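Field: COMPLEX_INPUT
Field: COMPONENT_COUNT = two
Field: RESIDUE_TOTAL = 498
Field: MODE = joint
Values follow.
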Amino acid sequence: MEYALKWWENTCMEKHLSLPELAVMEDEGDKETIYARMQNALEVMRQAAEEGFDPDRRSMSGLTGGQAYKYRESLLNGKTATRGMLGRAGARALAIAECNAVMGRIVAAPTAGACGILPALLLTLQEDYGFTDRQLCDGLIVAGVVGDVIANRASVSGAQGGCQAECGSAAAMAAAAAVYLRGGSVKQVFDAVGFALMNVMGLVCDPVQGLVEVPCVFRNVSGVAGALVAADLALSCIPCPIPPDEVIDAMKQVGDALPPSLRETGEGGCAACPSMCKR
Amino acid sequence: MNLFDIIGPVMIGPSSSHTAGAARIGRMAKRLLDDEVVRAEIYLHGSFAKTYIGHGTDRAVIGGLLDMAVDHPDLRNALNIARDRGMAFSFVPTELKDAHPNTIRLHLWGKSGSEIVVQAASIGGGEIRVETINGLEAGFRGKQHTLVIFHRDVPGVIAEVSRVLGQKNLNIATMRVFRESVGGRAVMALEMDDVIYPATLDALKSIPGIQRAISLEKV
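Field: COMPLEX_OUTPUT
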């Protein structure tokens, strides 16, 4: 196995396998254990999406909590700019990210800071298209493959690669899962990865007070929006102009070039805004 | 490939390094003490020192000392639970020399008079590394079954340990040995492919020069 999306695409073609089928063969676990653990992850994700809508919970710092509830209320009352899927996915991403901020139980995907993006998209797709849990598990497996390639070619850690590596990777994983579930080809799945990462190239990791709250919970919302956009582009048969593996490599180079102040130290970007420093 | 390195761990938020990693460090230290913790002095270095309250690092470490897993819902109430059980604890932000940015040093006292000092780092994604035990280098991750043996630095101990394990058909994956001085205190950390049963531990403890042997499961 090579750490390249191209390898996955070629091998799926040669062996006439779907991405989840090949992934199950390449994983160290056996098929039923993998699906059982993915189903468990899905349950935790679903529960986090419920808990996160609690209007009264606040994080220890008081910076976040209760905002997903406001988002959903606003959607229900028709006060948002968009109608439909984007808002529901965004509110869910915020709910799960806030559940994380208030010490709720979540699934790191790929990290705790970016934990809202992938589940929000999967659960919203299920709501709209009626996918079974088993199909969502296939989506999680596809996302896992993408995350594994990114983690090995670049990084999924904000401290190493900036937010592009955390929320960007989560968005790429979610976009891939969405394209897979909506019937895209393996090439289209990976084109979505390319679009998702390309569109957040250079995004810095700048947590206020060093906490996983501001801007993190909102970047989960923009992450799921970015994932939807990337999936739509790929599903429209628009090829990613840059080979997705090269986009991942470029993200690594950009991450390496970021100064430490923009890599999860809480010293630059949003964290350095005067009114955030005064708190 | 392990898909669950990416889709996981299932954990209590908000941070894999500052919450899940901290809980793992606490749990690992408790298991190394091999006793109920009655008193704990917890020294926090680097990023931990600056952001531990906002990340729930304090609750996570104490939850770990109560043997809670990283996804235990009671982690967030761990401080109160520990107080109810009569555990005395304090957190001290500190500066440790040449330490990883996310390092914790725990000085623990157990119910039966045991005592240990463990220093460990949270190295990302909830993964940890035990750096030192009682000031002696340890350098293991706790991802596999790990055998920790406290002994005197005398000839033949390593050979005896290896003989006992070989006899039981137990394979050693990695092995590290550190000593304080020639003939002084030493610690051995062995990562094993299989679980170690109490009978094996007893056999190891009966080797002359060995004071203590602990089997750690993955935390």
